[in-house]
Amino acid sequence: MSGKLNLRCIDINSPYCPCLLAETNHCVFCSHLKGENLCNCNWMGVCILYEKQWQYKNKEWLSFETDNGVRTEIETELSIEQLCENTYLLAFDVTSDLATAVDKPGAFVFLKKIGDPTFCHFPVGIMKVTGTTIQVVVETIGPKSARLFHDNNRKLLVRGPYFNGIFGQPWIDNINNGKILLVSGGMGQPPAIPIVRKLTSSANQVEAILAPGKIGCVFIDNELRDLGVKVTVVPSLRHTGMQIVAERLSNRGVLPDLIVSCGPDDQHYGVIAAMQTAGVNIPMAATNNATMCCGEGLCGSCERGTKGGQKVRTCKVQADYTEFIQD
């Protein structure tokens, strides 16, 4: 694999396209639905303008007059297991359609306590789906996540599905019989599970370097080993793990075909720096850590700039992480 990924909307060819952005000529993909005269899209096998003007398949939910219907919303009960200080494994049941939709790398949902205002929703990546039961991991360090546990609460409102939880998803979807280096720390561990499941199902060999990060524990190592992954647990990615990454990248005999970074942005930039030092250019997938409020590209809270001068609404748009301007 080589080259850079083109910008594309994660919702193209899904029931959520055309979306509300197309209604106001702010589509992230179609040039006509950005208000331009020239048809100049990176063709993805579907014409969004056609879907909007002639098919209009999502007419019922394409409305600013209602806050319902854009995604599925479900009230459900949850079970809680503490993994480490301030970090909890949540399990809850949803509909079969929603469970199927989020059973893939990069999928996430918005959660909030039932009865709380809409602005209390916060995004959480999917760790595992078993039947109609979803597992996620939440770190209660902010008011939104802490609200879920307020007054011994055991009910929540789930909204989804959403899909852009990892940049470079095409690399993950399309690589076969390759060598993968996974770097994961702290709260980057939960999204690593569906990524590894996808990679190992395509006969890829995965090596993982794991660290406890700020949450203080590693909890996916045994599951990764069960999936056939070679796992190395280090006390710190910054002080130990990145040295191992540098060694792998400097040895052309074990050079990976893809590197996956699941963790904070500082970790992603550390991996990029290691590649630059080693003088290699390997495709990279990285978890999306953007601040999100709506998940539909409307509020702009997730917007990031690229080296090419583009503004990317990262809740919707797949991009090459190495092209983002470092914050």
TrEMBL record:
Signal peptide: none
Gene Ontology MF term list: 2 iron, 2 sulfur cluster binding
Gene3D superfamilies given in the database record: Nucleotide-binding domain of ferredoxin-NADP reductase (FNR) module
InterPro entries: 2Fe2S_fd_BS, FNR_nucleotide-bd, PyrK_electron_transfer
Superkingdom of origin: Bacteria
Name of the protein in its database record: Dihydroorotate dehydrogenase B (NAD(+)), electron transfer subunit
Organism for this UniProt entry: Methylomusa anaerophila
